[in-house]
Design a protein that fits this description.
about 75% helix, Clc chloride channel, 2 domains, 17 helices
Length: about 450
């Protein structure tokens, strides 16, 4: 049998050169990365500083709301009337600022960001930053069930547009910086740089080139470093799970993923139905803002922990706080409608955090159910709550990798990778099988139709 002999390369034998077209493309990408590196760092730093300022302001606002509620309770009827009046006036103010000065800053702003990246909307970056910051601060401090990540994502995109605004005729660079700024804003909101990068890849840029990946990665890293330096490195939801969950939990995780996919579709339909209130005539909007402010004030008087983005409620759940099943159901229903109603006001605020809270409640409830019906499986309700966060996020947004990585980074725990993977992709399959659009795609479609009708 003959053996094939491989001739060694001679020292003076030249390596086959790249074809001219390949060399040109390689050099162009390399030059573009070098050119965008300083802007990517600046984008991350500025987005991080803006997110830190927004978070400090919200912390102060929520602290003030808590002190105001404690003071008002000392005066019973007069105190309740004062709380309801202040809540109504603050909601009116937050809604009017957006409607009057920057309608594109309504809600999370992510659909507007996607429209800008597709070249279908303009971006007044300075106006968006100012309106988004003020309206989001007033609304969330008042107690509306909205998250800070929507404002930081759109403000990060606005910073990216500002850095690119002097580049005439280079729309490609502007879109790269806008997308990277959105990812940096998400990274700063949750101290989660990989989640910011995943969000750019899964949600903002469907066709992600290597340059987009590079700029987004640098911006998310720089933004997260700023936040960690100024806010600390502790995870948002510390999770005490030292060992991987038992494989016996996986069959019970399947129905959790399916339920999260179904609830995600219901949430999307309800949120879209609530968007009809955003386009009411101005008088109707004033009435609705005042009405919803009174509702929020009443809920705050009853259970103040139900208000705002819900991070404190989710933190207690992830920390292992035990809640009766009836309380879990009531909290879930109230938070569900509170989130829908708050978003339908059109004020500035996101749905990431509220959806994560709903997912934690849903997962905790499913965990309680599983322990009652299958007492032979390990008692691990905490894992159900954490997996529910990512699975419901996937059912709503249809970005499973972002949901998985976000929960892993927020909890600083990697032991739940397998249950997270299983639940998220079951939720994705169920939601897709129901022919329901992802929430940001549906909101983008409605926004473009409304914008076309106005023009």
């Amino acid at each position: 049998m003959m053996k094939t002999k491989f001739k060694p390369r001679k020292q003076n034998q030249a390596i086959k050169p790249l074809l001219p077209e390949e060399q040109i493309r390689f050099n162009a990408r390399s030059d573009q990365r070098k050119k965008l590196l300083p802007k990517a760092v600046a984008l991350g730093v500025l987005s991080g500083l803006l997110a830190v300022a927004f978070r400090y302001s919200l912390d102060y606002g929520e602290q003030t709301r808590g002190e105001w509620l404690r003071l008002a309770r000392q005066h019973e009827t007069m105190g309740l009337a004062a709380v309801l009046l202040l809540s109504a006036l603050a909601t009116m103010l937050a809604g009017w600022i957006v409607a009057r000065f920057a309608p594109e800053a309504s809600g999370s702003g992510i659909p507007h960001l996607k429209a800008v990246l597709q070249g279908q909307r303009q971006f007044n970056w300075l106006r968006v930053i100012i309106v988004k910051f003020i309206s989001g601060l007033v609304a969330i401090s008042t107690g509306l069930a909205l998250g800070r990540e929507g404002p930081t994502v759109q403000m990060g995109g606005a910073v990216g547009h500002a850095l690119a605004r002097h580049k005439t005729g280079d729309d490609g660079e502007a879109r790269i910086l806008v997308a990277a700024g959105g990812g940096a804003g998400l990274a700063a909101a949750f101290n989660a740089p990989l989640s910011g990068l995943m969000f750019v890849l899964e949600e903002l840029q469907e066709n992600c080139a290597t340059v987009v990946f590079f700029v987004a990665a640098v911006a998310c890293l720089a933004s997260d470093m700023i936040c960690r330096q100024l806010l600390g490195q502790s995870p948002i939801f510390p999770l005490a799970i030292n060992n991987a969950p038992s494989l016996y939990l996986l069959p019970v995780i399947l129905p959790l993923g399916a339920v999260c996919g179904l609830v995600g579709v219901i949430f999307n339909k309800a949120l879209l139905a609530g968007q009809r209130l955003v386009v009411l005539p101005m008088l109707g909007r004033w009435v609705y803002w005042g009405f919803w402010g009174v509702i929020v004030g009443l809920i705050g008087w009853w259970r103040p922990e139900m208000l705002g983005g819900g991070q404190h409620l989710a933190k207690h759940i992830v920390a292992g706080q035990t809640l009766p099943q009836t309380t879990i159901i009531i909290f879930f229903i109230v938070r569900f409608f509170l989130t829908i109603g708050s978003y339908s006001t059109g004020v500035a605020g996101g749905i990431f955090a509220p959806v994560l809270v709903l997912g934690a409640l849903l997962g905790l409830g499913m965990g309680e159910w599983a322990m009652d019906w299958f007492p032979q499986i390990p008692n691990d309700k905490l894992s159900f709550a954490v997996v529910g966060m990512a699975a419901l996020f996937t059912g709503v947004v249809r970005a499973p990798l972002t949901g998985m990585v976000l929960v892993i980074e927020m909890t600083a725990n990697y032991e739940l990778v397998l249950p997270l993977f299983l639940a998220c992709f079951v939720a994705l399959t169920v939601a897709d099988s129901l022919r329901n659009l992802p929430i940001y795609e549906a909101l983008l479609e409605r926004d473009l139709l409304r914008h076309k009708g106005d023009s």
